[in-house]
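Quick one - first record:
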Amino acid sequence: MPGVAVNDLGGSPGKSNATIRVRGITTFNINGSSTSGYDLGKNDALIIVDGIEQQLSDLNPDDIESVSILKDAASTAIYGSRATNGVVLITTKRAKGSKVQVDYHGYYAIQKSNNVPKMMGLEAYMREQVAAYTNAGAAVPARFTEESIQAYVNATDREKYPLPNTWFETLLHSAPQQNHSLSIAGGSDILRTRLSIRYQDQNGVIKNFGNKIGEFRLNTDYNVSKRIRVSADINYRYNSTESPTTNPDAPLNNFFHGSLWAVPKYADGTYGLSTQGNNPLMFSEIGGQSLQKTDYLAGFVKAEFEIIEGLTFSTQIAGRGLFTQQKNYTNSYVNTDKNTNITKTIANNSLTEVRNNLREYTINNLLTYEKSFGSHNLKALVGYSQIGNTQTFLSAYRERFYNNDIGSIGQGANDGTKTNAGRDAVYGLRSFFGRVNYDYDGKYLAEVNGRYDGSSKFTGAKQYSFFPSFSAGWRISKENFWQGLENTVNDLKFRGSWGITGNQSVDLYSYYAALTANGYSFGGTPVQGYRQNTLANTNLGWESTTQLDLGLDASFLRKKLNLTVDYYNKQTDDILLNLDIPATIGLTAPPQNAGSVQNKGWEFSLNYRGTPAASGFRYSVGGNLSINQNLVTDLKGTGPYISGSDIDPRYIVKKGLPINTLWGYKTDGLFQTAQEIIDYKATYAANTKPGDVKYVDLNGDGKIDANDMTAIGNSFPKYTFGFNADFSYKNFDLNILFQGAAKVDSRLAGALAEMGNQEGFTHEIYTNNYWTPENTNARFPRPVKYDLRNVATSDRLVLNGSYLRLKNVQLAYNVPPLLSKKIHLNHVRVYISATNVFTISKLNEWNLDPEAPSGRAVYYPQTALYTAGLNLQF
């Protein structure tokens, strides 16, 4: 869908990391940052499932009946404070009719890592290291003498002469995944019920990662009378996830960094170790396990009462709970590399245990009225909603258990090494809203929305805010004067909307003069005290987004060709910033409503449905294109805000630039001669030599420093696009989905950027492609051991992240009804499919995934999925 960016960031089993963002990035958090830039976690779309806010990851895909996405302010305004980033509306399947229906959906799939970086060849790498040490003026280690190089290259005993890095080949492997869903639906005109159960088992493409899910959903509808209807739903899910305790969130870190020249595992079962004492296989197998078990329970009861014809009152009471128990156990062990005598010792085993609970209730009360007066159609709605949320967190740590098999927190050492921590949080939202919708004969359309929201995250006069919206439409093709054009343009509608939505993305209790515990000594005696760290801001209020949308919908060729065009302009104001306060106050500056961001752009959608052929062939194709321009328009004189470093991606939030713009030096190739260096004068590092990077002195002051940095790339795409096609012939059907993005960049970091200058993985792309006096036209600069002068954050490390990906393809066969009836089945469908099939991108040469963020690429690998599935209906 145009304007909707679904970014699949991969994630280990049970920890899927996908985002849904609608019409750009509207806000940012300057108090949180990572190698992906300033925190953008509060830009995700609101997910509403059967009227209740939930997470998409909490749903069984086989339970979903329909999905719709609200983008413009008129359609989202009814959701007020939560709708700034768009709304995804999901309805789940319910029983239909009185006949009992049983459905089984199952599949078995194989996962494979999409990207497997390849290490530079053994001899090429060793000779590159000779050059790196020589260029640094350092002694070349014995491993890299000519005699040693020949011994390594010609060796067959890889325990004695290990390869520098084989971790991707050693630890990445194909992994199975299976999923089974069974549903039973039926009832009568009075009572209908649908029960579904599901089991999923997913292994990781890295050893000791895995996830299991078991769940059920029960949806029930009861017609008490002609005027009273009651619905009740309940959903329970058990989720069990395991991963190695070492680097569970960045499992590839030691694949890339600090693990060279280590034998993965000796024949006697011990492990080789790098100079730093690392071995990713050892960490995975004996380092310890992290086990997380989550119970999720959600349900609601809803009643509808038709007071008189056209006037209906409904009330819904819902609750959801998320109860997480986590045990992170680190084993004690000793391992000595029998070749090098390097020893890795974890003297004390330890356990960190966590309890994280969330409880939330929702109350929705609606009064709707619907009436037609000839060609006049009127719909009206007023409502009240209330949400209450309570969260508790508790953690405990102990160490020195009797052995590695004891996982009970009470069995650890009861001494000064034990720690614990905890916190509680409570917040609520109360809303009053209304909507009036009018149309005349489907020709003239108008709608007015209003929502009055109050949040416990604010106080005083700022606690409540009003969010209005207006929309209008004109189906010009229904006018009498259009009759001569209807064969050319079958349907044409113009529409426009304007509205304001809010965002309560402030941290809890930001307006409160909170105190934190602080110990001190009084007369030599330890005393527990409290102090205020941050100045309170009781004037803290809502972020608000004002959006204008203008669009048209048109149909051609007897409504087989459909076109949609939209222009939008979103202005988000009052984003939270930490404005300067006098230092004499002695406290940290509080967040204040100050920043502004603009998103504006175009959306195009074109779909064609072909005429069915007599042979049974049918097809439909569609494409969409979104153009988004993101711009920071006001920081109230503060900033710019810069995060990152020279070795990691550096980002900037600055007026006049998009959020999280990549920031660094411009370059002008490589220095080729000593005279060129003398003439240029401005150098990044002392003792600059031919083959070093030539950084551009933007301000002309004769030196290279932070004042020469500028915008060097875009973190988010300006263009996103998709293409889908459906073909069917008799009992076969084929579905294809492409997606892509353009005008977006990715920044290399870590070992991928260091080209062997540190003790990290060295990509094969550098092979014979670095500067030497004999290879002056090389793509990359000269390597200099333990010197990062040539990998400072610059446009040399920024790659074009544009891509086109075949996201999914599925081929299915529907068994003819006459044949399926013989085995007492109503419907049988078998299919094969593949996800993340192939990608066209300049990032491919680096084995990087274009949907992943910039940085060191230490995330859990994005995977391709090859599936065989079966759908049965009884």
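second record:
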Amino acid sequence: MFDLQSDENLLGQTWTFLAARETEYPSPGLGGEHGSAPEDVQGVLPYHAANLASLGAKSITVIRGNSLLAVMAFPSVASVLDALTVLMAEPPGTSAAQHPLMVGVATGEVPMDSRAETSQGFQRAVSLAELAGAGQALIASATFEIARDTAPDEFGFRDCGTVHLPGQARRERVYQLSHPSIPSKTIESLGEDRVVNTIPKGMGYFVGRESEFTAVLRGLDIYRVVQIVGPGAIGKTHLACRVGGELVGSAGEGVLWVSLEGCRNAEQILERIGDSLGGVRRFPYSLEMDVSKQLRGRDLLIVLDRCESCVAPLAGVLATLCASSGPRFVATTSKRIPMTDADIVRLGPMILPPKDEPLSADDLESYESTALFMDRAREVRSTFTAGEDARAIADIVRRLDGHPLAILLAAKRTRSHSPQQILANLGPIIGVNGEKKTSGEPPRKSLRDALRYSSQNLSSCGNLMLRRLSIFQGAWTPLDAAVIADLDVPEVELVLNELVEAGMVETVDGPDGKDCYRFPAQVAAFASSLLTGFEREEVQERHCLRFIDMLAQASKHLNGPFQWQHLDYLDFYRGDLALAFRFMLAEGRHLLSFVDAMVLSWSFWYKRNRIPEALQLIERAIKSNDAIDKEGISKLLNIAGVLANKGGDSAKARSYYRRALQTSRNAVNPGVLAMISTNLAILEWSEDNAEVAIKLFDGSIEVWQNLERKHYVAQSLASSVAALLDLGRVEEAEKRLVDSQLLGLAAGNSLEKWALEVSKAQIALAKGRSSEALPHIAASISCARDAGDDISLARSLIWLAQAAVEQERWEVAGALLGAIAGYAKSAEAYLYRTNELRIARIEGRVRAAIGDARVRELRLMGSLSQISELLMLAQSV
């Protein structure tokens, strides 16, 4: 029968609920009679009951009346997706149009003290089914997080915005599911914030470029990728903005803007795209897979701006992202991206008026170069008219070679100069050897002449800031500008307004959403040429000190759950940080500050995928500077080893560590030697050299004890116990644990207690006593929570997962695998390779027991677990 009763086995477990609503349904074989449902009439849902039950439906609730509503509980999202393809199949004698189902899917736990019908997942699924239209399947956000990572490629997901579901306190984001076998109609609107629009502000009005604009739109109708290619400052970004503004309403989910300036490899490109999507998870999948899954099926236009530095890796990234259904891309670049399945729109100078023909003021609007001049001049002075100056304006744009930025700069001068004066100040067309150009020769140096002319009309403070701020490699705040220009902030803000009005500075969004400023690339190059001699040295010094101080302040916050805003802050200034480091090395100044800065910032270089750049700086410092003492060299080599190890090059890491040990033998600070020994021990242990690792741990523990650094003693102790257990030396591990307890670690802080508890748990598990290990694991989880140390928490969860496997609690172990990855990711922490191998062995056993699909779901569920839930899991095991 179709009407199955609720199953008590639902209680205390997590299920994915599918609610399917059928308002009109035919009698089988009659082909079109619709109306209320008498008890003896079967609809589409009852027709599929047997197939649904075979897919694992544990409970089916039927409501009869003017509609038929079925709510089914499935053990996995994968089985729900299979069920949907079954439901959408056409019963005999009917067509898709005759049985338009409305489906809602949500995942949730059924409490032990409740019924399935009152659970949050059940209620959400019903609400979504009520919200869906005919032939549509809506899924809740929690289910989407699982489905996007487990669904086959033919499934797609469309963001429908946030809605308020009945009985829910907060609005929830909802997604529409698509599949070739589901005859669904695209939802036009659900949530108020469905459309994304991150197009940069302050780009001004768009004038001209009609043919190129049309070409980009036409290309997007045919290709997934359209490249806008042209030289610098020719208007590529403006054109992309115009295209995005045109399509922000028609591209279902809107327009996403991603700047790739400074990117060098695929990892950095994917990180930028992932950040624009709100961040991506690294576990359990690669970054490439995470971004691909986030974008799969999305109806977005993604603009990739300033791609010149990464055209080769970007070609590979775009090929991967375009392998399945998803967004369209517009890329702006001065170099062509080497890919065949893409359209190219080339951008050159703007259309110029004829040289020798008479022109009226009205004729100026017919040519895009003169129309741009008129538009920008009216922006500066609303009453501006060409009048008798039409020919002078035409000569100005010809003099400037139709270059948009040069025309903009010249037009800004109409605030105080007539077109005739502007033309006279620009001077004649100059040739390569300094002679006046003849009419048949191409114009030269137009942009530089316009920049020179604009700078001559700035105030003295304006010129001072133009020169001094050219030291910045990226954007800056008014406070940054005040420090570098050596001016007061209020005065700086006034002068910045002057530079913006002159068209020489543009505004951008800062890491905190506030306005920042930057020079266009060509303006920056011109301004930098004006900064010379003693003034340049003085500005470089202030710039270096500014960013050393910034790094010192941010380094206190580069770990833990609130690190992201500080990492984003440093990443925003990444070009200026690199410049400050290079200055310290080149000038031989602040070398002690350089060492300290590298020690403080190593996690930034690692977490933002800048390991090669950091290693290059360290090698340069070691080779070219005798002013760094042995202790400083040892610290730098130790940091290099850490970065190389985290980057996956264990051979290079070992070389750095051994060089550091050799250098630090006679160093004054024994703590440096102990830290290097500990890091090398961890590396040797991860490379299965446990004997070598134990000796190194012993040496470092002795030093930490002499220095009374109990925290480091505890951490080294836990690692050495695990290494001994890997060698099967259980008795020796127990003896070491007893000896360590005499050191008073049990009365220490939370992390010292954590080390003892996790060591006891490891020994109990090595003896096959998983039940004896569990109280120690639970205690270690509590200690890690109290210390706020997510990586220690992740290591405790590894041992809990092993205990769950020993007791064949496969689902608990699967969820713990996700929690381990989630907590390691939340701290951006590095799990030692030995732990990674242990995780792999645990996961292999779990997969063999319950299958790959279920493990993937459980991992994703576990990654969202709270510590209190993990403690409950420990108690349940």
